Amino acid sequence: MTRLAIMGVLLCFACAACFCLGYRLASRINQVRRRLGLWRISRKFTPRLLYDEPGSWYSQAKPILWAHAGGGRLHTYGNSKEAIEDSISKGFKVIEIDLDLTSDGVPVLSHRFRPGNQIQFDHRPTLSEFLSAPINGRYTPLTLQGLFDEFKSFDGYWAVDSWGLYSSGIKFNLISYLFETHAELTHHIIYLANDLQEGVQGAKSGRFASVHCGLPNDIDKPSGVWQLPHLIRIYTGAGIRSVTLMDRPISEMTRIVVNRLREVGLHVSIVGVDSAERAKKWIEAGADVFNTDKLTPNIVL
After folding, report:
1. Are residues 130 and 158 in the same domain?
2. Are residues 202 and 231 in the same domain?
3. pLDDT at position 277 over 90
4. Is there a contact between 26 and 32 (Cβ–Cβ < 8 Å)?
5. pLDDT at position 52, please?
6. Mapped to the 3 state alphabet, what secondary structure does the chain carry?
7. Do the domain assignments include residue 299?
8. What is the pLDDT of residues 83-110, one digit of tens each?
9. Residues 208 and 61 occupy one common structural domain
């Protein structure tokens, strides 16, 4: 009886050891599968883009052009009243704007407060200082409230980029601010998230026209492509429908990445494409949105 009991205990220990080893092996295999992207990606998600509904202007416009920095070239008169007026007159339906914060807490249109970026300050200005300093000495600066007041008849979309504010380290929840002060306009805002957490927060609110997330710079390189399936699962699960890449040489891996993103219903926006020839190459690769300084909606691509 004693021998049987000992054998039973040993058998239990052996089973437990096998279970632990099997669990660790399975975990390791799953890690490798994640890195290689060897698992199925669910396509069962609900589109949340208000401007992407069947029959809407956005769903019919291919490719889609955004006016970068208000449309006035970032280092000339971008983010100014005159730049936005010019973009609207050219037929842009999406106008990207850069947001920063004055020292007294007012959101304004600016691509960071520093020398060389249109409005030259060596400090974070007050609202009064900001409004009294014309962009490049000539053009009209705007607050976010001033933008909405000045262009309230604009029937397109504002793509809001707050990277300058985010990168400065100032604690300011722009999503909450927009919901509290401009709730009636958020369905006309395409929110450009600064990180994945912010993107998920904005998308799950269901209150923006869309939420846009940037992709890692090495997403089409061997060092970064393993992240793609994981990111797609997060994007589609949260309702994020648009992603951004900076213009770059288009490799075969770039084409694979772009096509995989398009397969699961994500718009792919390329920043910095300013020639028709370059845009055509990206369209061939699968991209469908361009955040541009020079292209205009009447151009044939």
Report:
1. yes
2. yes
3. yes
4. no
5. 53
6. CHHHHHHHHHHHHHHHHHHHHHHHHHHHHHHHHHHHCCCCCCCCCCCCCHHHCCCCHHHHCCCEEEEHHHHCHHHHHCCCHHHHHHHHHCCCCEEEEEEEECCCCCEEECCCCCCCCCCCCCCCCCHHHHHCCCECCCECCCEHHHHHHHCCCCCCEEEEECHHHHHCCCCCCHHHHHHHHCHHHHHHEEEEECCHHHHHHHHHHCCCCEEEEECCCCCCCCCCHHHHHHHHHHHHHHCCCEEEEECCCCCHHHHHHHHHHHHCCCEEEEECCCCHHHHHHHHHHCCCEEEECCCCCCCCC
7. no
8. 999 999 999 999 999 998 999 999 999 8
9. yes
Has residue 169 been placed in a domain?
yes
Say what the pTM is. 0.78
Residue 28 and residue 51 in one domain: no
Let me know if residue 298 belongs to a domain. no
Let me know whether 8 and 67 are in one domain. no
Most confident of 63-72, 113-122, 145-154: 145-154
* Residue-range definition of the domain harbouring residue 33: 1-39
Which of 74 and 44 is assigned the larger pLDDT?
74
